[in-house]
Design goal:
The structure is a single chain. By secondary structure, this protein is an alpha+beta fold. It is 42% helix and 16% strand. A 5-stranded antiparallel β-sheet has the order 3-2-1-5-4. Strands 6-7-8 form a 3-stranded antiparallel β-sheet, with no helix packed on it. The longest helix is centred in the N-terminal third of the chain and has 30 residues. The radius of gyration is 23 Å and the shape is elongated.
């Protein structure tokens, strides 16, 4: 849809081309940039760390600007038969890529809250099942009372995953499961992941963060921000929505 729209409007001087030529050019630009952004988003997540959305987006913008700008330049010189001979001309392309990448990254954070029907006033426990959720493997229930009770979420994790689970963080349709020495990403609904942490006691600190009670070491203040420090050193933000409940339970 984006390819067709920009081909029809012909921005950035491409209207001089025929419609078929424009469609081919913009289709390549949109598809290649989307594929590269998908790869770089995963790289940015590993570099910046889970839950640090601003850092992830900044890393993504830097990677897109660095590696997609030459691709865009090559496509432009091929389709528009223009020559880009100076660094200043290349810099113009880099500016466009950086601005658009930042805009797309920001939209990915903002639009789901206001457009895609997410009810911000609703507790995550009330969310319905997600169509992309991975079905939980059918495992026979543990019958030995002597064995320590493990959360059902452990059944979704690789056999070599080293627990215990300290916290859960949601990003898009994925849930990051964080342990002291390990981390794994699952494609599932956040509320379902929290539900499968039973019988481990935990609390929501934010609509995107859940923390096991035993993992909480203390709290820190950064101006108006309140953060929980975990036993592994992670800092988890506390939103205004959940702060009263945490104070009431004595965790703050």
């Amino acid at each position: 849809m984006v390819s067709f729209f920009v081909a029809y409007t012909g921005p950035f001087g491409t209207f001089s081309l025929g419609f078929g030529h424009r469609l081919a050019y913009w289709s390549l630009v949109v598809v290649i940039s989307a594929l590269m952004a998908n790869v770089f988003a995963r790289v940015a997540h590993r570099i910046a760390g889970p839950g640090r959305h601003l850092r992830q987006d900044l890393v993504l913008v830097v990677l897109m600007t660095t590696f997609f700008t030459p691709v865009l330049t090559e496509l432009t010189t091929s389709f528009l038969t223009v020559k880009i001979a100076s660094f200043s001309e290349m810099f113009v392309f880099a500016q466009f890529v950086a601005i658009l990448s930042l805009g797309v990254a920001t939209a990915r954070r903002v639009l789901p809250k206001f457009v895609l029907g997410l009810n911000l006033g609703k507790s995550p426990e009330n969310d319905g099942p997600h169509p992309d959720a991975e079905p939980a493997p059918k495992v026979a229930p543990e019958s030995d009372p002597e064995l320590p009770s493990q959360p059902r979420l452990m059944r979704r994790l690789p056999p070599d995953f080293t627990g215990p689970i300290l916290r859960l963080t949601v990003q898009d349709h994925f849930v990051d499961v964080i342990a002291p020495e390990d981390e794994h990403r699952l494609r599932m609904r956040f509320a379902d992941a929290v539900d499968e942490m039973d019988p481990v006691e935990g609390v929501y600190t934010h609509r995107s963060h859940w923390v096991a009670r035993d993992a909480i070491k203390g709290d820190e203040r950064d101006g108006a921000r309140v953060l929980l420090r975990l036993t592994n050193g992670d800092l988890v933000p506390v939103s205004r929505t959940y702060r009263p409940e945490l104070e009431k339970s004595g965790l703050l």
